[in-house]
Predict the structure.
Amino acid sequence: MKREKPPTIVDVAAEAGVSIATVSNVINRRKVPMSPETIRRVEEAITRLGYRRNVMATNLSRRRSHELGLILPHFGGYYGRFAEKLEQKVHGYGYHLSVFSAAGMDPEIERRHLEHLLQRRVDGLVSHGLAMSIPSTMQLAGEGTPLVIFNGWNWPGDVVKWAVNLDFAGASREAAGYLLARGCRTVVYAGRRHGMGANEQRIAGFLAGVGEHGTEVAHALLDAGELGVAGVLEAALSVGGSASAGPVGIYTFNDALALELLAECHERGIRVPDEVQLIGMDNEPFAKAAFPSLTSFEMPVDLQTSLVAAFLIKQLGEALDEADEALLEQYLAQTVGHELLIPMTMVVRNSTQKGAFHSHP
Amino acid sequence: MKREKPPTIVDVAAEAGVSIATVSNVINRRKVPMSPETIRRVEEAITRLGYRRNVMATNLSRRRSHELGLILPHFGGYYGRFAEKLEQKVHGYGYHLSVFSAAGMDPEIERRHLEHLLQRRVDGLVSHGLAMSIPSTMQLAGEGTPLVIFNGWNWPGDVVKWAVNLDFAGASREAAGYLLARGCRTVVYAGRRHGMGANEQRIAGFLAGVGEHGTEVAHALLDAGELGVAGVLEAALSVGGSASAGPVGIYTFNDALALELLAECHERGIRVPDEVQLIGMDNEPFAKAAFPSLTSFEMPVDLQTSLVAAFLIKQLGEALDEADEALLEQYLAQTVGHELLIPMTMVVRNSTQKGAFHSHP
DNA sequence: CTGTTAGCGCATTCAA
DNA sequence: TTGAATGCGCTAACAG
């Protein structure tokens, strides 16, 4: 624990025999003209001393941190990829991204992270539709820091300028329609209550899809958190009365749940997709490798992060590059209000293809 | 973009009719005696103005950030959980944790994050065995910031005081032995070259396990990155000559790879575990839900993060609580050098239980 | 082209 | 019990 304190700009100036202002100039590659000789001497001094600029001092002085904060519900799957992509994106604009996880929607942890980011005076924030209550968030975020939400619905436009959402409703509508088209006699949605807005969107879309079907169809909304996986499966199987023909279609909150249901089907000798058809969401790597492979929805992470970054960078008064500017305009044109919807595409696999698998022939 | 600048301690002082020193005192020096009246006035002013302390200024003044940095190879699975746990742990000691992902072992990104963390003058660093070269890291980290490594091997003791590692070698040894004991005629290890140290540890342990077997046994080391999943399976099947009796045992770098191999087996009508037995690593949620479920190794995230936190906090000169102190001593006692090894436990499932599954009866 | 100087927001002696 | 003054490391006019 020796830790002699790191060299400062003053040490560098002394070492190079110039003033601190000059050092600052060469560090920040300012426009001001400087003799090559001076630059060389300063740079030498910097490497010789192992100088590293103190960003706290820099930010304090600049009254600008060039730092952005991202709050995620957790680091897994889609969200992790989201974070990495967004980091790359904003780095291209000279911003740094600090990522925090609410460790599974824990409002307390979330609040802590938010508070910390605010105290650090980040220039902007990106957050999922939070676990914290909206008023509580509003109070924290206040009018202050630019905030872009992703996958959050019904945020008042005065606190959130933009919400960049995946069209879970549309996807769910499609899923329901697809299952019905495949001849399912019954369709159910298996959700997770703590999915919050994302869950509600799926429900709304699912119901819409069911409603669009020509004839009346047996359906149900199930909660996996409440019923458990086995409970969901049982409930699903008994919805339409056990005698009717055709498989039961189950559309799940995400691939993880779909996979668990799949395992439960194996356990009970229920054939997929003959007796039960499954559609998940997220298109996780394991969805493809499952047996039978799971039909799911691809997450357009690239597009979503690009849009999020574009909105935030723009709010920060920065100029966007050609591609991002174009992207923004394209989506802005087809958007009403401040909620932007990104369409999703279904990836059809064997869990919805009749006859592709027989567990117990 | 109005953003009137946030209130400072000066504003609060004015509002409360006291000096800034007094404000500072009520905020963080409750030890010094102050009249309750003053405290009340200051606190009122704070809430009235919505004052929030600027940590950059605070840290600059204190010459201490109370912030720790964590660098991960990526956010997925085990690492994500690791981050969340560690965050909780260090929060208990009054530290904040900033997490960064190298986006899949990208040395460039990793360097960027490390540099940023150092510029931010974090009090300590935690990192996986990095993607960056060791010398490059040493130069960066230098003698300066306390650094604890996890799952990193062969780091010189003068730059890394502690390395807290999972015993991948021991687990791999056990895996090989287990497969052999289950009657496998052939055992192979399917790895990922970019797993680096973690991969090498597995290889060493695997070979040791094979070597401990009484008789000579056909085995091989395969690289999934090079051969592809199909290639690995083919190679594995042909290792011992196709005629010999007993299943082929495949021990994989992680569950993801095991699952892909499992899918490939289904594809080709190869029965698991009758013809092929699989053991993965990480005990991901999908390992349990796979069909057949995958034998794997549990990751002791809690224990590992506790130890990492304890080492780092201690290096920072902080006092540990009872439990952590005890934990530290316990492990210190059984450790030689600066590399600490955490034992892992196997979770046996159907992918190694004969007869549990017949894909094509 | 280079140096002087006044902040940035806060913590912390040292006096009062 | 409170306040004035100094410094943390750096940036950004403004002079020279």
